Automatic annotation (TrEMBL):
Lineage: Eukaryota, Metazoa, Chordata, Craniata, Vertebrata
Domain annotation EF-hand: ranges: 48-83
SMART domains: S_100
Highest taxon, organism lineage: Eukaryota
Gene Ontology MF annotations: calcium ion binding
Record has Metal-binding as a keyword: yes
Keyword Calcium: yes
Name of this protein: Protein S100-A2-like
Keywords: Calcium, Metal-binding
Length: 98
């Protein structure tokens, strides 16, 4: 195993996803609805366009505790990626041309 801390692009993407969650989690280690909706608008607008933040929150909060845990957040991102090939292709094209 390498001792280098150089990250691959995929590791960077996963680390960024975790850092987004960490920046908005409360003292209980979870994201409340207000911060979750802010993250949706700021970080995932391509996937959430035209959708209701409250509905997304209800579908993401799998244990129905009123908060989003990292596991629930990661599942949301993975679900968006796996179920929206059209959006992903547009994002990849934009990424490659940047
Ligand atoms: Ca929850």
């Amino acid at each position: 195993m390498s001792c280098s801390m150089e990250l691959t692009n995929l590791e960077t993407a996963v680390a960024y996803m975790f850092s987004v969650f960490m920046s908005k989690q409360g003292d209980n280690g979870k994201m409340d609805k207000w911060d979750f909706k802010e993250v949706l608008n700021k970080e995932l607008p391509s996937f959430t366009k035209g959708k209701c933040g409250d509905e997304i929150f209800r579908s993401v909060d799998l244990d129905e505790d009123g908060y989003v845990e990292f596991r629930e957040f990661a599942l949301l991102v993975a679900t968006y990626a796996s179920e929206h090939a059209d959006i992903l292709q547009a994002l990849v094209a934009a990424y490659k041309s940047a």
